[in-house]
């Protein structure tokens, strides 16, 4: 248990945790996101599914069916994932950066209050 205590002490001393504990929670974190933000986040998640997991699945299918031509789908899926990623960033816009920072600070604060404070 002394390792756990020293880890907690070390985490409490980090600047991010100290800043999260003294910074008031931003009210924008509690507001329901607009449909545009939800669509942007959904496209962002979909872009990761179109990326490497889809290429891996195409490789598995190509090996299972013994059709190497199916591997040509890989670069197309990878390019599609970047297009979907760009569309998600266009929908999210620059306001999502400040919202993401506020949400991150809130998560760090909740973690610190729950696990790091005695």
Main features:
118 residues; mainly alpha; 77% helix
Report what the structure shows:
This protein is an all-alpha fold and 118 residues long. The chain contains six helices and no strands. The longest helix is centred in the last third of the chain and has 22 residues, at 95-116. The model has no long low-confidence stretch (mean pLDDT 86).
Tally of DSSP helical segments: 6
pLDDT averaged over residues: 86
Distance between the termini: 15 Å
Structural class: mainly alpha
The outline comes out as: flat
Element order: H for helix, E for strand: HHHHHH
Oligomer: single chain
Helix fraction by DSSP (H/I, runs of at least 4): over 70%
Low-pLDDT stretches are none
- Summed up, the domain count is 1
Q: Tell me the Rg in angstroms.
A: 21 Å
How many DSSP-defined strands? 0
What share of the residues does DSSP label as strand, in percent?
under 5%
What does this entry show, briefly?
The chain is mainly alpha-helical and 118 residues long. Helix content is 77%, strand content 0%. It has one domain (2-116).
SSE layout:
Elements: H1 2-12, H2 15-22, H3 35-50, H4 52-65, H5 73-92, H6 95-116
């Amino acid at each position: 248990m002394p390792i756990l205590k020293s880890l907690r002490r070390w985490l409490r001393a980090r600047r991010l945790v100290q800043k999260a504990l003294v910074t008031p929670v931003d009210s924008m974190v509690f507001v329901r996101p607009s449909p545009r933000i939800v669509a942007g986040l959904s496209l962002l998640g979909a872009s990761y599914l179109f990326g490497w997991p889809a290429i891996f699945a195409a490789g598995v299918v190509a090996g299972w069916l013994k059709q190497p031509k199916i591997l040509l789908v890989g670069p197309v899926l990878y390019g599609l994932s970047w297009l979907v990623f760009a569309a998600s960033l266009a929908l999210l816009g620059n306001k999502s950066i400040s919202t993401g920072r506020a949400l991150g600070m809130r998560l760090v604060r909740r973690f610190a209050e729950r696990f790091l404070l005695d």
